[in-house]
Design goal:
- Chain A: One of its GO terms (molecular function) is acetyltransferase activity.
- The complex is a heterodimer.
- Chain A folds into three domains: about 100 residues, RNA polymerase II/Efflux pump adaptor protein, barrel-sandwich hybrid domain (OB fold (Dihydrolipoamide Acetyltransferase, E2P)), CATH 2.40.50; about 50 residues, Irregular (Dihydrolipoamide Transferase); about 220 residues, Chloramphenicol acetyltransferase-like domain (Chloramphenicol Acetyltransferase, 2-Layer Sandwich).
- By secondary structure, chain A is of the alpha+beta class.
- In chain A, strand 4 and strand 5 form a beta hairpin.
- The N and C termini of chain A lie far apart (about 60 Å).
- In chain A, strands 9, 12, 15, 16, 17, 18 and 19 form a seven-stranded mixed beta sheet that branches.
- Chain A is built from ten helices and 19 strands.
- In chain A, helix 7 crosses helix 10.
- The longest helix of chain B has 15 residues.
- Chain B has a single domain, classed as ACP-like (Non-ribosomal Peptide Synthetase Peptidyl Carrier Protein, Chain A).
- Classes of the chains: A alpha+beta, B mainly alpha.
- At the A-B interface, helix 6 and helix 8 of A face helix 2 of B.
Chain lengths: ~400, ~80
Amino acid sequence: MGVFTMPSLGADMEAGTLVEWLVQPGDTVSRGDVIAVVETQKGAIEVEVFEDGVVQGLMAELGAILPVGTPLARIGAEGAPVAEKMAKEAPATNVPAAPERELPCREAAPPASGPSQSKPQPAPPPRPKPSARARPAASPAARAKAAELGVDLSVVTGTGPGGAVVLEDVEQARAPAQPLDPAAEMRRAIAAAMVRSKREIPHFYLSTTIDLEAATAWLAAYNEVRTPDDRLLLGTLFAKAAALAAAQVRQVNGHYLDATFVPADTVNLGIAISLRGGGLVAPAISDAQNRPLPELMLAMKDMVSRARAARLRSSELTSGTLTLSSLGETGANEMIGVIHPPQVALLCLGAPRIEPRATGDGITPRRVVTASLSADHRVSDGRTATRFLTAFDAHLQTPEEL
Amino acid sequence: MTEAEIRKAFLDALTMIAPDLDAATIGGGDHLQDDLELDSMDILNLVTALHDRLRLNIPERDYPRIATPDKAVRYLQEAGA
């Protein structure tokens, strides 16, 4: 019996995306069988199992970015009681969440189950463990409910007196499985990528404050004569200006792979999207530099709604060549970000604000934004980064040409 | 429309664009951005939804007037919803 985990498929691999299961709970597998397909930065890789046994449960959801070591599946000896139960209860379709129902039991179960295990305990366990007794302690109501629902009482963790199974435990055991906490998974994925970034990428940072009067005036006039569904956001202008600047300054647009910078021939602009409820994804809009503003706006709307519904395509998550991260309308003035590997730069925008600025002979209030570029010193230097920020600024001064 | 109908239409649109919000727990004075954490894309989607449902084209300069449900109900009433 063992837990099959996300293997390390290379020294630099922090995480992989599970894209396909080739087995179902109940399948018999032999050492060397391919059981899953994992998408890594080196492409799709077929993953082999290390032992003979029966797949007792799939523990990871398709599409999740999983750090190396994350449990993916449980492989047990043939004929194990859990496997039988799984095979009976799990539907034929691949529902990764279903086996999670067993997780509370798995946590509580001793490594080698058996009644003898409970004797030499120095202290009582926090929660009584299910045992192999023929007739587990259970309240009459729990027993009746278990019979009605077809729940096996011997695998239900009891919370009643002396570890007896009570009605609530049966209902709990029957309740639909809770999927892995997506927010926690997301945080782990972010952590893996950011740790790798900070470890490998010699970041340097440049900031500049950009006057937004031209862009906001143009945008207000544009939106004034349009119904809401045809309006643009300032963020659309930022995205287009960033894409155009990246197309001009190629050293910030591409991937750093195998100690070599590979400039991209188009701009797949990653847009950092914060998810309601926590977490962040940065799916990319392909060929952003060639899309007219209304089309770019539609693509952004579509991507934000799909990001929030967790329906992004894997290509969107891997194809980004430069990422834009904006704080939005309110918040801090400036943000200095961490590059998303294998990309080599990240453009961060603080919240736009009104600021007194020297204009001509006087001082006037102007709407401005602080743009900060984090860049990879293996690929570019301050001069290059300045060229990018200058180009970005210039595009925002001529919004009608965006 | 009555005030209650307008409020319901507004909250319906709001919970449609941010499905994690529960209409029953949204206060009349809750600020869409500061309290309910809507961003500019959400606000635009909300205004689009109100346009579809109430046939009211809310100009950008009036966005501050729908910053809370209470303000929005007042504004939408004045605007002829």
